[in-house]
Amino acid sequence: MDALDLLLNRRSIAKLSEPAPEGVALENIIKAGLRAPDHAALTPWRFVIAQGEGLQKLSDILVRAAEADNSEDAVVEKVKKAPFRAPMVITVIAKVTEHEKVPALEQHLSAGCAAQAMQMAAVAQGFQGFWRSGKWMFHPEVHQAFGLEGEDEIVGFLYLGTPGCTPMKVPERNLSQFVEFL
Ligand SMILES: Cc1cc2nc3c(=O)[nH]c(=O)nc-3n(C[C@H](O)[C@H](O)[C@H](O)COP(=O)(O)O)c2cc1C
């Protein structure tokens, strides 16, 4: 797939089935994440891959957070099922190092770039992905389960798998609404 075609036409797909990327394809996805822009070479990234039993562990973590908040049963049921919407979920974490020139925000952004790059690499290899978030990724219970410290943040859950449908058309957007010149 041509790089510009990928950049201009990528869509997310929520319907994801087996197989998940593995072997070289998965390595390429991780390597793409590791090519995110990185001020001062701080490598502010952690990628926690869940599949099979890992999805159950992720579900258990989310349920613990929902229960800690005394959430309604329907909410607990929803988070319990959430990780099983794809055969693989990568939790993308910004691992923040204190640095006089590189504030935490830049490191969070770098981890966000990594998530986007990984989604792109998945699509480029015939897989698909959906970047999800939700309030649970900010929850202390979830942070503790993933060993986050200080200003570390989970920037998203990247759901990956094989597309279960064709992607929707890219929305037409008027460039002039988004672009200004100084
Ligand atoms: C940080 C971040 C978090 C997101 N979280 C969610 C989410 O929890 N649920 C959701 O439906 N879409 C979420 N999205 C948006 C989808 O990943 C996706 O981009 C959106 O559905 C538009 O589809 P497209 O990528 O094909 O344009 C999130 C996007 C970003 C950048």
UniProtKB/TrEMBL annotation:
Residues reported to bind FMN: 10-12, 35, 39, 131-133
Cofactor binding comment, as recorded: Binds 1 FMN per subunit.
EC number(s) per entry: 1.-.-.-
GO molecular function, one term: oxidoreductase activity
Enzyme class: oxidoreductase
Membrane-spanning intervals of the chain: none
Co-factor requirement: FMN
Residue intervals of the Nitroreductase domain: 8-161
Swiss-Prot/TrEMBL keywords: Flavoprotein, FMN, NAD, NADP, Oxidoreductase
Family from the record: Belongs to the nitroreductase family.
Protein name as annotated: Putative NAD(P)H nitroreductase
Organism: Vibrio fortis
